[in-house]
Amino acid sequence: MDTHDIVVGPEAPExxxxxxxxxxxxxxxxxxxxxxxxxxxxxxxxxxITAIANALNMDMxxxxxxxxxxxxxxxxxxxxxxxxxxxxxxxxxxxxELSNLSSPNTSFAIFRLISPDGSEGFPGKLITxxxxxxxxxxxxxxxxxxxxxxxxxxxxxxxSIVLTYRAKLDEDKQVVTPVNLTQHWGFNLEASLRDGxxxxxxxxxxxxxxxxxxAKLGPGALPTHEYLLATEHPSHGHNGKKIGDLFPESGYDxxxxxxxxxxxxxxTRIPLSSFDSELDLIKDILLPSNDDQGNATRGNRxxxxxxxxxxxxxxxxxxxxxxxxxxxxxxxxxxxxVGARKKIHGGSGIKDNGDGYSPGTAAFLEFHExxxxxxxxxxxxxxxxxLTTDELYHNYVRLDVKFKEVAQ
Length: 408
Description:
Number of strands: 24
Mean pLDDT: 92
Oligomer: single chain
């Protein structure tokens, strides 16, 4: 059996400090905001944000220019130290929710970051907690492939990861601020096979997105708040086709609005007055993907909105979330001359050794609210990616990993 590491990234944990936006949390605000000062309002609470343009990022060779604030500004959440908490020290998850984490099938950690008022131009002191939970699969009988195994080999559950982000403003006065968090993780389901070229691409991966439209972007990849229909732009129709089919010249760096009606009962924010010891928004998203008899278990969890798979490795990833869209990026800003490629992916693990990841070597799937949603008048007081002092932010994504043994 092969061992697979399905996410790209540096070899050493400290490499995330310089190898930007590779398997890190993004905040306070994912994606791009036009640089400058913007008036904001939600539920009658007004304020303003001064989005700061990013400096040249030498490791990614990305110059966003003077008009774009990317991923929370120059020093976003990815660049800041988080504090690991005990469950008892968490203040943004309820007692009922924390009790779900006592299952022997679940391992977890909770981290906290306090962002001061005015950080990167964002108003209000923001307290954020991130729950990372690993969930083992339920019982299942495993029969490994033999010469007599039929071509339709069974598919097995390998486990799940759940990322849940909570945030609230810690202010004595009424404040409103933009909040739009995501995990900037990039996947390659074949890189660990190492039986091909060093720069193994994801073009032979199959991708399904439950979306029929992609954001129409303007200069600097800033949003126009309009969308391109996949029926008119076939490259944006991800219905199980290979990523390499109709592959754009510069790769994908596109935001897709998801058809995610199944998550309508899972809020992206709740009134703080509703947050008590009995509130439980995570019980079902922490269930194993199958029960003791091998039957699928979902509870009230919505259906998957994205699927990434490789026929070569037999690995399939399924994602569900309460977010309304996903950014799909094929690592076009990567440069093999800088950064480090993991040893298990055929690299040296050494920074700037000339064997880093190159464009097309990862499929990043970043689930978050629409780009600069608070600047689109159509979102006023709705899914506007704004948070007030009266609300608790709630964002989750779950990844289920499945495997089907491939004939050799």
